[in-house]
Specification:
heterotetramer; A alpha/beta; B mainly alpha; C alpha/beta; D mainly alpha; B: two-stranded antiparallel ribbon; about 5% strand; D: mainly alpha; two-stranded antiparallel ribbon; globular; binds adenosine-5'-triphosphate; binds magnesium ion
């Protein structure tokens, strides 16, 4: 006979000092680096038991599951996770919730219904749309556009492609999306090679490149600069390499996301959930914001981001969390 | 003449020439325009050198799983030297080469002192190097280093990228080493029949260490090509080099068991793989289909080789 | 006469085996010294110690210094031995298959100029060594393209290339024709006249008596005769020393074959993709048919074509009267009960890194298996039985075949086909590298098999063996049968007829 | 009829001293076991969480189970001296088949598993057939197959699911994923805290062990690996044995894919992505040579255990990424060197005392 499932428990009743938050990205990536500091800040600000940042998963869902189990074994009880595989991560979330942990999906939402308590992430479709818009602006409203992105068989990539296509469609045929090049974010060298081949094959017909992944962004900025072609490059995120490109002119604009906000507000919400609050709409998805930055607003964007982060927290306090 | 026609290299050369011609026609000769040809050859340099780096250890019947990651490590380390330590480019280049050779030497010494299978040793050092490669600059990217070095990477001689010429020069040097130098012959003898080599007074241990050191040195050269030609480096460099490093020599006809190498075959095989790569961007083919095609091409090439062997075997 | 090498009380132990147990060898300048002993007596081990391949566990090795005084030395590796002027041909082939003949010959001291390999000098040096053997071989040919005999000759050229004062030859003639062997011994004699010393290991006692002047006999790793003049001994005495027991006659089983019996194996105007044409041959149950020819005549190839490894393009093969299409060895073994003992035990006969038990039982696992699982007990008793019958020297049935001495390996290679219990057995060069006692035992065994009704096709380049064993001798030349003779067991007469067939290339099929 | 002048036939081979058996501690498998035990002691003294039965030990066993089977899949062809560079993708294709039949036909867990195993065996057999028929190096054939399957698998997933994963959860899968025998009780007596997937892996290991130790098929595969020409000349149908070994490899890859899918809770395209290196690591650590002719199933199990223990322990110690990689490599090298040292000492002793 099977024993009844006594292990299933609900999160709740933990004092902030008992809450140990684990922020787990899918692997090492510049995008997640702000989580480290933001997590540490959240820890002291909210007097949490602990906040750790663990990027050892190496873009492998099995390894990430393993990392999560190890963290649980060490007493971490609240998890902010970027699921390596949006299509599989729900089972991992369920697994964690069964053990009575608060779980937030950070920076990426699972494909289909979200089984974590909430998902705080860039709306990638909106971000890609904004990037494409910026590209269309930069190329003067007409011409040929190319989209460079990551793993094709990933629901987020599909959403990004959709966002770019939407922006292109709005031009009513003045801008043509020549190509969406996928699967070139795994390592820098493949991105460089793909960009070089692309520029060689079609460089003269292209007016702009919009990137929705990091390695292609770095590679296309450098590649376009070297080829001296008049192509506008829209990058992503604010890694030093991208900001340098923005200042140097090889990057026309970049679409920023809000990793700091994800980590800080995410930790906050996880603490609240661990303390006995519930989420009013389980699995709710919240856009953590995206911002187009050009050389002109290089200095002001940080303030916008802080404001958005503050608004996010208010939103959680106001209508997302139910506490008694 | 007949014997030339029967070689694996000849088959590969024919396939490569036909493939290249077909692609040139199919792209309305866009392939032959300066820019396209330049990109084609520039990105051919790395697979050639990395294939040779694997080939020299295959020659003694070993494998080096760390070539790719070692290339990345040397590249990131030279980025660090130029940007964070502020050293001039020549120093960084020499350091990358020295670093590669040193790691290769350590691989070789570990293999002979522990007598652990080279496969496992290099798997372990690969993991260690992954850590080190990441440790240099985390997820950050180095770019904007030495303009001179990058110009060198972009330069062309009579329309041919200098880095490609460098790769060819390296290939010639490797061929010369195996063909014309005594240590090179000893290395091959040791790979062909270790026991017989030992009975002829050749030290198998020395051959192993030499092969691994050379492999590391070639990985160092690969790193220099990366740094010079591509303009930016980070800790992801080298992740996609492991399989190509095996594919080029093995398709090129190098025996896994050791003792037999083919520099020409390795170069031609790298050329073939690059050809598939380029057709993908020329025709906007889904990468997944490209994988299928590469699989088919590789199988086709070896089957053809087999067919040719059968034909020539039948003439005996 | 001055001593050029002295090995005293050498001891060498392998896990489970004491290969050398206080063996002593003294070599004087200008001598041709025979080193004799049964299979597994420790001859090769001794040679390997003298060339720095193995280090002895005990005993002394002394070589003359520059002043001629003997001095204790340690040979740590083969280079040390080379430097000490010791050249060697090991029993096993030790060539680099992908290298050219010239490179293999000069591998120990590749000539260089300006740091690079000097190919011209290499060719000259190789040519010189090949000329010593009157060998007309292209020095630029890769060794992998040579025949076994040619490889053997290249090995000898390699040993000569070092200009050694001591030459150790471990079974150098095992795969040579008589002509080639004679040429080799001519060189050996010339060298000894110039003061070089040679150690010769061979199981062909005729050769030994013809060439050597002194002899050391090993038995179970111990020297039972030390550097005695060979002239003081008769062949029989030497054999007694080797065997350690009084000389006895061996009786080959009596057989009578009825010429009307349905042949077990019949070839009717067979041609093959290997190049055979018009090959007709019958072997009846209880009969031993010899297939004689020079190396490369196509005898082994014929056997392999019969087993389906080459295609038969014309003619007919009949097994017990029924036309047979044999696809592979499994087919031959299980459907037609034909077995083939290969001449090349290392590459084709044995699984060197597997246990003797598995090597022996591999052909009969089908019979030993119940529900697909092999019964270890049955396998064990099978191995014990054949080790016993063939006198295989084993430390244990779980010993790897590669650790056995050459003769014992040959026995294992035969054992698996005896175990398979075939009607027809093709035996290819069964006694190459086999000691006299075992050779006689093999002969007795083969005759015994025939007496019990087995049909045997015996391929051999050893004419005395042929004359001893065969009922009829077919002679093959250039992939065709050029003649067939009834054997009257008179060596001189038979050899004359056979040689005539070979040289004239024509004869009447008897 | 005729008499030959030669000495008497030999009597039975004289009794020789039996082979000295190496001491128990010199057994290579035992060495690995000791290294594993030492690491377990080390890790549990460094972090007590290592002994947490629910959060560490149970998942650890489940992981080991997967990688033992992955190692066995490679071992099946290493026995021939071949390699299977497509283990991972064979697993992916097979789990696709499983997901498809669960999703479309709603078959029970076991039926889907069998379908997947059949697909795995089939694709393995195809690889074997190509290798045997063409004589092309197994590395090249399976590498090419790997590329081909990489494309095929994603194309298939896109076609069947529009994504990279089946949403279906056949009944029983979650039990395999979460339950241990401790969850099943007879009255008051509950089983040990061993995940349900463990017996599957144990059965696979026993099966492969039986195959290579006692079955004619397995032995003939080993002989083919040891010396193909000699095997051919001993009447072994080497082509069929090559096909069989590759089919077994594909079958085990499929099983590993199933176990991983059970552990992860989803049938998805990325199953098997990380199989390649571990598949070699486990058998080679366990003493199986790349040259063929000899395998060690127990060693493979211990090799997989060793790597997973190292990984788990270091994970628990919360190293940063660069430290983690560094230490995995170093611990691996150290463990192996110790094992080597032990073997060398054992050999010396055996020789000097016999
Ligand atoms: N590497 C080894 N490992 C274990 N045992 C060995 C090894 N080499 C030789 N032996 C054993 O040592 C003994 C002597 O072998 P050796 O090869 O010296 O005999 P031999 O006199 O040359 O015989 P043959 O005439 O058959 O060549 C044999 O019992 C053999 O099994
Ligand atoms: N005329 C030839 N030219 C080239 N190669 C030959 C020629 N004749 C024979 N060979 C090769 O030499 C080898 C020896 O042939 P085979 O084994 O059939 O001869 P054999 O009569 O059995 O001689 P043995 O067994 O004594 O060597 C084979 O590989 C065969 O292909
Ligand atoms: Mg011998
Ligand atoms: Mg022959």
């Amino acid at each position: 006979t099977k024993k009844s499932d006594t292990t299933d428990t609900e999160a709740g009743g933990r004092e902030p000092a008992q809450v140990k938050v684990a922020l787990v990205p899918g692997g090492s990536h510049p995008y997640f680096q702000p989580w480290k500091d933001a997590g540490a800040a959240a820890k002291s600000e909210l007097s949490l038991g602990d906040v750790t940042f663990n990027e050892t998963a190496g873009w492998d869902q099995t390894k990430q599951n393993d990392v999560l189990k190890s963290l649980a074994a060490q007493g971490y009880n609240a998890f902010g996770v970027f699921g390596v595989s949006p299509d599989n991560i729900n089972s991992t979330f369920e697994d964690l919730k069964r053990q009575g942990f608060a779980v937030g999906s950070l920076a990426s939402c699972p494909a289909g219904a979200n089984k974590a308590d909430f998902c705080l992430s860039t709306d990638v479709e909106v971000a890609a749309y904004k990037g494409a818009k910026a590209a269309i602006d930069a190329m003067g409203g007409q011409g040929n556009l190319v989209h460079l992105t990551g793993n094709k068989v990933d629901s987020n990539t599909q959403r990004r492609i959709k966002g770019v296509e939407k922006a292109v469609a709005e031009t009513g045929g003045k801008v043509v999306l020549v190509q969406s090049v996928t699967d070139i974010d795994k390592d820098l060298q493949s991105a460089q090679k793909a960009v070089a081949d692309l520029l060689a094959a079609k460089g003269r017909q292209i007016q702009a490149i919009v990137n929705t992944a990091y390695n292609p962004a770095v590679a296309s900025a450098e590649g376009v600069r070297q080829s001296k072609l008049p192509i506008k490059v829209i990058a992503i995120d604010d890694d030093p390499a991208v900001l340098d490109g923005l200042r140097g002119g090889s990057v026309a604009a970049t679409v920023l996301q809000n990793p700091v906000g994800q980590a800080r507000v995410g930790s906050y919400a996880l603490m609240k959930l661990s303390g006995g609050c519930t989420i009013s709409e389980p699995g709710v998805t919240i856009d953590s914001g995206s911002f187009v930055v050009t050389r002109d607003n290089l200095d002001g964007y940080e303030a916008d981001r802080t404001a958005t982060t503050e608004a996010l927290r208010k939103k959680f306090d106001g209508d997302l969390l139910k506490c008694n | 003449m007949r014997s030339l026609v029967r070689t694996n290299e000849f088959t590969l050369a024919v396939i490569a020439a036909l493939g290249f011609a077909a692609l040139a026609v199919a792209t309305d000769f866009n392939l032959l325009t300066a820019g396209t040809l330049d990109a084609f050859l520039r990105f051919l340099a790395l697979p050639i050198v990395i294939g040779l780096a694997q080939m020299v250890v295959l020659a003694v019947g070993q494998m080096n799983l760390s070539v790719g990651v070692l290339t990345g490590f040397c590249a990131v380390a030279s980025g660090w030297l130029m940007i964070d330590a502020g050293l001039p480019a020549p120093v960084a280049v020499l350091a990358a080469l020295a670093l590669g050779a040193t790691v290769g030497l350590v691989n070789g010494l570990l293999v002979i002192f522990t007598r652990i299978n080279g496969f496992i040793v290099t798997l372990a050092t690969m993991t260690i190097l992954e850590g080190l490669r990441y440790g240099v600059n985390g997820t950050g990217t180095y770019q904007g280093y030495s303009p001179g070095l990058r110009e060198f990477g972009q330069a062309s001689l009579a329309g041919v990228p200098v880095v490609f010429l460098l790769a060819v020069a390296i290939a010639v040097a490797v061929a010369l080493f195996f063909r014309r130098t005594v240590p090179g012959r000893h290395l091959l003898a040791s790979g062909g029949n270790p026991f017989a080599a030992r009975l002829s007074g050749i030290s198998n241990d020395r051959a192993l260490v030499l092969a691994h050191t050379l492999s590391g040195l070639l990985a160092g050269f690969a790193a220099v090509i990366v740094v010079a030609a591509f303009g930016s480096v980070n800790a992801s460099i080298g992740d996609d080099l492991l399989l190509p490093s095996f594919a080029a020599p093995i398709i090129g006809g190098v025996a896994l068991a050791g003792g037999m190498i083919s520099v020409t075959g390795t170069v031609l095989a790298a050329f073939l793989v690059r050809l598939v790569d380029v057709s993908q961007s020329q025709f906007d083919i889904n990468r997944r289909w490209v994988d299928l095609i590469i699989g088919a091409v590789v199988l086709g090439a070896v089957l053809l080789g087999q067919f040719r062997d059968k034909l020539s075997g039948g003439q005996r | 006469m001055s001593i050029v090498l002295s090995a005293e009380n050498l001891v060498k132990t392998f896990p489970g085996v004491r290969a050398l147990d206080e063996a002593t060898l003294t070599l004087t300048a200008g001598s041709v010294h025979a080193l004799l002993g049964e299979n597994g007596a420790g001859k090769s081990t001794l040679i390997k110690i003298l060339t720095g391949v193995y280090r002895p566990d005990g005993g002394l090795l002394r070589l003359p210094g520059p002043d001629g005084e003997l001095r204790t030395v340690q040979l740590g590796n083969p280079q040390d031995a080379q430097r000490a002027g010791i050249g060697v041909v090991h029993q096993e082939r030790n060539l680099i298959p992908t290298f050219t003949v010239a490179e293999n010959i000069c591998l120990q001291h590749l000539p260089r100029r300006a740091g690079l390999l000097d190919r011209a000098a290499l060719r000259v040096e190789a040519r010189r060594c090949l000329d010593l053997l009157d060998l007309d071989l292209d020095p630029d040919l890769p060794v992998s393209r040579l025949s076994v005999a040619q490889m053997q000759l290249v090995e000898i050229a390699k040993a000569l290339s070092a200009d050694s004062t001591v030459l150790l030859l471990d079974e150098p003639t095992a795969s040579l024709t008589n002509d080639e062997a004679d040429r080799l011994y001519g060189i050996v004699r010339r060298l000894s006249e110039r003061g070089h010393a040679t150690v010769l290991v061979s199981h062909k006692l005729e050769e030994v008596f013809a060439v050597a002047d002194t002899v050391t006999v090993l038995r179970d790793g111990r020297s039972v005769a030390e550097a005695e003049p060979l002239a003081d001994h008769t062949r029989e005495q030497i054999v007694d020393l080797m065997v350690g027991r009084a000389y006895q006659q061996v009786h080959l089983a009596e057989r009578t074959v009825d010429a009307d019996t349905e042949p077990a194996l019949a070839l009717d105007h067979v041609a093959t993709t290997a190049g055979h044409h018009d090959v007709s041959l019958v072997v009846r149950p209880g009969e031993i048919v010899g297939l004689y020819g020079l190396v490369g005549a196509g005898r082994s190839e014929l056997a392999k074509a019969l087993l389906g490894l080459d295609r038969i393009t014309a003619g007919e093969v009949r097994v017990h009267g029924r036309p047979a299409r044999i696809r592979d060895v499994g087919d031959a073994l299980h459907r037609h009960r034909i077995g083939y003992v290969t001449e090349n035990r290392k590459e084709e006969g044995l699984f060197l890194d597997q246990t003797v038990a598995r090597n022996t039982a591999v052909t009969v696992w089908r019979k030993l298996a119940r529900l697909g699982l092999v019964r270890d007990r049955a396998e064990r008793s099978l191995v014990d039985e054949y080790a016993d019958r063939l006198g295989i020297r084993l430390a244990s049935p779980d010993q790897h075949a590669g650790q056995l001495s050459g003769g014992n390996q040959q026995k294992v290679s035969l054992a698996k086909w005896l175990a398979a219990d075939c009607d027809v057995l093709i035996i290819d060069e069964p006694t190459v590298g086999i000691d006299v006692r075992t050779k006689a035992a093999f002969h007795e065994l083969i005759a015994g098999l025939a007496a019990r009704g087995m049909a045997i096709l015996l391929i051999s380049s050893d004419l005395p063996e042929m004359v001893t064993l065969a009922d009829r001798i077919a002679v093959m030349r250039e992939f065709a049968i050029v003649g067939e003779l009834d054997n009257d067991h008179d060596y001189d007469r038979m050899s004359q007829s056979v040689i005539r067939f070979i040289h004239d290339g024509q004869g009447v099929v008897a | 009829m005729k008499t030959e002048t030669a000495p008497a036939a030999p009597p039975a081979a004289e009794a020789r001293p039996p082979t000295r058996v190496l001491p128990v501690w010199a057994n290579p498998r035992l060495g690995l076991l000791i290294v594993v035990a030492a690491l377990v002691v080390l890790f549990s003294s460094l972090t007590p969480a290592f002994l947490d039965p629910r959060l560490t030990l149970a998942p650890l066993q489940a992981d080991i189970s997967v990688y033992v089977v992955v190692g066995l899949a490679q071992l099946a062809v290493l026995s021939l001296g071949h390699m299977n560079m497509a283990v991972g993708r064979m697993a992916a294709l097979s789990t696709f088949a499983m997901g498809l039949v669960y999703d479309r036909l709603g078959v029970p867990l076991l039926v889907g598993l069998l379908v997947g195993l059949a697909v795995g065996a089939g694709i393995g057999a195809l690889a074997g057939l190509l290798i045997a028929k063409t004589g092309v190096n197994s590395f090249v054939v399976t590498l090419a197959l790997d590329f081909g399957l990489l494309g095929l698998v994603t194309i298939l997933y896109t076609w069947a699911t529009g994504g990279v994963s089946f949403a279906v959860q056949p009944s029983g899968l979650s039990a395999l994923r979460f339950d241990t025998f401790a969850d099943y009780c007879m009255g008051d007596v509950c089983g040990p805290r061993i995940p349900l997937v463990v017996p599957i892996a144990v059965a696979a290991a026993l099966g492969v062990g039986l195959l290579f130790r006692h079955a004619r098929l397995g032995r003939e595969i080993l002989m083919t690996g040891s010396n193909t020409v000699a095997a051919e000349l001993s009447g072994i149908p080497t082509h069929r044995r090559i096909v069989a070994a590759h089919a077994v490899s594909g079958l085990l890859a499929a099983l590993a894919g199933f176990l991983l899918a059970a552990n992860n809770g989803a049938f998805s395209a990325n199953i098997g992505e990380s199989f390649l290196l571990p598949s070699f690591l486990a058998p080679v650590l366990g003493g199986t040579l790349l040259a063929g002719g000899a395998v060690s199933v127990l060693g493979t199990a211990l090799g997989a255990t060793l790597t997973q223990v190292i990984y788990k322990g270091l994970n628990l110690l919360q190293f940063s990424l660069e430290e983690l990689k560094l230490y995995i490599g170093l611990v691996l090298l150290a463990a192996l060197s110790l094992d080597r040292l032990r073997a060398v000492i054992a050999e010396r002793r055996a020789v000097s005392t016999s």
